[in-house]
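User: I'm writing a short methods note and want a consistent example. For Zf-RVT domain-containing protein, I'll paste the sequence; you return only the structure tokens, no commentary, since I'll be parsing the reply automatically.
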Amino acid sequence: DVLHNFADMSGLQPNLEKCQIFFGNVDSSTRRRAINMLQIPEGSLPIRYLGLPLLSSKLSKMDCKVLLDKLVKRTSSWVTNSLSFGGRLQLIASVLFSIQVFWCSTFILPVAVTKECDRIMRRFLWHGAGSGWEICNKKASIWTEWCFAVFLKENNFWAAKVTNNCSWSWRNILKIRKLLVNKLHYEVGDG
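Assistant:
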């Protein structure tokens, strides 16, 4: 009757397929009667509402795993795109910070979680772009085509010189050739 009165007064109809019932200090026979009468399954804590865990206690780092996983998932999907530094910065400012602020508007996040969020965003900002390995493999992307057209021109990646005109990022890509050379396997083929 209470649910029907609520529906009549508010105009909102509960969706019983999405509902769960929670008990506090109720014996098991009363629980079973209520569940059978209402035909609503019993829920267990913690539950999520709008992606946030509903807790009665202080938020722990484990409770924030969903937040951290969401940030990692987003940055992992963006890494495949060859984004500029400004593009990565814009994604961090408009998407990743928004996700974190949404959580912060509800909870006081543990310090370890905020540091991990910062680490995820910092790693994406500084290492999210294409790498020297993509140039070696001549991976089909706008970024590698741009590197060959602007920096390498007709030169080989391994023979390109580090000059004073090189940008900081290009200079560092050329410097990692020392690390890459140990990972190469040569195959002699026709042509």
